């Protein structure tokens, strides 16, 4: 019988990508609010173009926040500090357009009774559907293509910030295509890196550096071969980058932030949102649950989907799909999940301890798959309980 073969590609972007600049500012504002007032309600979005940054949104907080200073410091930390940068930490014009959270939304989220509200419990901050995903392709229990793409971007950033390669600049993208046979990743067929650079460096030098010092250093050598195609700065030149070359918006890299397209996405962005927004907190919850299912050996792949109505505490649906890899039927896994975990928004916040200034750690190179104790949704601490709930 012939093997089922397909190629799957995922991309990542560097910290200096204009969309990620905006994500980083939004999450830095969120962390600044939570550091002073853990009950802050934050929905912060940014726009960046040329030498302009607009920080907008709805924020209700007791915190004293220097929005302009946070934007400049974030841009400085990313690395837009060169004399020839049009988008420069000390020279950008920052406009702030912040109002408070709508009281109509607040009464739905607050744990109190309100006219027309069916419960006094804390409700979801919006309607919507969220997904969580995990698989056993990598040690992080994440899909291989997106993890490989993140490795490339992280390595580029580390070398750039070390100063060892002075021609590197902040904007960068990576993409990895992986060959699967019978559902398992077996080879890397294509690697794309586009990295911003100074005008004086030769393309051949960039290509050699990216292949030898980045790709072959961080990707598994047994998955690379003489058949792997490398496309390095395929336009031939990438001098103008960042918000000078492209427009940045918060929340436009949701597939980069999650599973690289391998797992589905409900559509809601993460950055700049406090944990009462289920777009973010419930997606983290879904990852925690799915990862524990896979870590328990109950499935090789697991995807959760659940949905909420604004102001209502209980999800309107919870479903599980193990894509035929489950040790037991999906319905049984779903029942065990509902016994072990609570999906009410207030319980998600408590279970994952989300009222902390931890969100700048999530912004770049994916919100999932990182080894950091602050990112509680990456724990596999419910394995034994899931097994007990299934009588295993």
Order of helices and strands, N to C? EHEEHEHEHEEHEHEHHEEHHH
Q: Largest beta sheet, briefly?
A: 4 strands, mixed
Helix content, binned percent? 25-40%
Mean pLDDT, as a whole number?
A: 94
Multimeric status of the protein: single chain
User: What Rg, in angstroms, do the CA atoms define?
Assistant: 22 Å
Strand content: 15-25%
Classify the secondary structure makeup into a structural class: alpha+beta
Number of helices: 11
- The shape is flat
What's the arrangement of strands in the largest beta sheet? Answer: 1-6-7-8
| Low-confidence blocks of residues | none
Number of strands: 11
Separation of termini?
Answer: 34 Å
Commentary on this structure:
- With 392 residues, the chain is α+β, with helices and mostly antiparallel strands.
- Helices cover 32% and strands 23% of the residues.
- It is built from eleven helices and eleven strands.
- The chain has helices spanning 18-36, 67-78, 103-109, 144-162, 203-218, 242-245, 254-257, 278-295, 330-340, 345-352, 383-389; strands spanning 5-13, 41-49, 52-60, 93-99, 128-135, 168-181, 184-197, 229-232, 248-249, 301-308, 317-321.
- The strands form three sheets. The chain has a four-stranded mixed beta sheet. A four-stranded mixed beta sheet has the order 4-3-2-9.
- Helix 5 links the parallel strand 7 and strand 8.
- Helix 4 crosses helix 5.
- The two termini are 34 Å apart.
- The model has no long low-confidence stretch (mean pLDDT 94).
């Amino acid at each position: 019988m012939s093997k089922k073969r397909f190629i799957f590609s995922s991309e990542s972007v560097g910290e200096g990508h204009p969309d990620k600049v905006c994500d980083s500012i939004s999450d830095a504002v969120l962390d600044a609010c939570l550091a002073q007032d853990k009950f802050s309600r934050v929905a912060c979005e940014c726009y960046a173009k040329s030498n302009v940054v607009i920080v907008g949104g709805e924020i209700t907080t007791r915190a004293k926040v220097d929005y302009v200073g946070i934007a400049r410091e974030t841009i400085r930390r990313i690395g837009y500090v060169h004399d020839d940068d049009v988008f420069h930490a000390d020279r950008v014009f920052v406009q702030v357009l912040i109002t408070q959270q709508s009281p109509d939304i607040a009464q739905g989220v607050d744990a109190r009774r309100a006219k027309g509200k069916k419960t006094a419990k804390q409700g979801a901050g919006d309607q919507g559907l969220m997904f969580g995903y995990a698989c056993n392709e990598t040690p992080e229990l994440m899909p291989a293509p997106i993890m490989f793409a993140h490795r490339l971007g992280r390595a580029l950033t580390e070398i750039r910030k070390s100063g060892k390669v002075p021609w590197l600049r902040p904007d960068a993208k990576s993409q990895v295509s992986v060959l699967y046979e019978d559902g398992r990743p077996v080879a890397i067929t294509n690697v794309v890196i586009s990295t911003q650079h100074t005008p004086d460096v030769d393309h051949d030098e960039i290509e050699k550096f990216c292949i030898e010092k980045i790709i072959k250093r961080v990707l598994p050598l047994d998955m690379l071969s003489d058949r792997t195609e490398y496309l390095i700065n395929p336009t031939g030149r990438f001098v103008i980058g960042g918000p000078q070359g492209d427009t940045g918006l918060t929340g436009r890299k949701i597939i980069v932030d999650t599973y690289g397209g391998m797992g589905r996405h409900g559509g809601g962005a993460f950055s700049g949102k406090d944990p009462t927004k289920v777009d973010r907190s419930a997606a983290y919850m879904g990852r925690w649950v799915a990862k524990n299912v896979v870590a328990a050996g109950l499935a090789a792949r697991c995807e959760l989907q659940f949905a909420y109505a604004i102001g209502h505490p209980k999800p309107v649906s919870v479903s599980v799909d193990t894509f035929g890899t489950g040790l037991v039927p999906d319905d049984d896994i779903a029942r065990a999940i509902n016994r072990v975990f609570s999906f009410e928004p207030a319980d998600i916040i408590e279970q994952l301890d989300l009222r902390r200034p931890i969100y700048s750690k999530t912004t770049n190179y994916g919100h999932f798959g990182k080894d950091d104790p602050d990112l509680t949704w990456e724990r596999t601490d419910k394995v034994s309980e899931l097994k007990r709930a299934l009588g295993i």
